[in-house]
Specification:
InterPro entries: NTF2-like_dom_sf, SnoaL-like. Pfam families: SnoaL_2. This is SnoaL-like domain-containing protein. With 128 residues, the protein is of the alpha+beta class. The protein has a single domain, classed as Nuclear Transport Factor 2, Chain: A (Roll). It is built from four helices and six strands, in the order ααββαββββα. Strands 2-1-6-5-4-3 form a six-stranded mixed beta sheet.
Length: 128
């Protein structure tokens, strides 16, 4: 089940990035999920806050696209190694790499956390 959910997550993220479709990615999360990353001081709980998290992610960039170099999957955990490239909405290129951990329960993500260098990303996003 985790393998299928990992593939669905990748497809949903790419749909979010290309079409601004937040609904598809949020539908993969459990009602009591927890979502976060190294940039946000808060953790987002539940699907309404997951929607807020993913909307903010997409609004951070102009064009954006993630590619996945590696997937490590066991019964209830997925690790995705990725590179995200695009622009900051102001004409400056953005490129950063990281790893996302998804904890799953059946066909839902119960916890998502992304690890990357927030300083490098912040400098790229804020360039005028």
């Amino acid at each position: 089940m985790a393998t299928q959910l990992a593939d669905q997550f990748i497809e949903a993220l790419q749909k979010l990035e290309s079409d601004h479709d937040v609904d598809t990615i949020v539908s993969l999360f459990a009602d009591d999920c927890e979502v976060g990353n190294l940039v946000s001081n808060e953790k987002f709980h539940g699907t309404d806050e997951a929607r807020k998290f993913w909307t903010h992610y997409r609004e951070t960039f102009g064009d954006v696209h993630s590619t996945f170099q590696n997937k490590i999957i066991n019964d209830h955990t997925v690790a995705l190694e990725w590179t995200t490239e695009g622009d900051n909405g102001k004409g400056q290129d953005v490129s950063y790499r990281g790893v996302s951990i998804l904890e799953t329960n059946g066909d839902k993500v119960v916890r998502f956390f992304a690890y990357f260098d927030p300083k490098a990303l912040g400098q790229q996003v804020q360039q005028a």
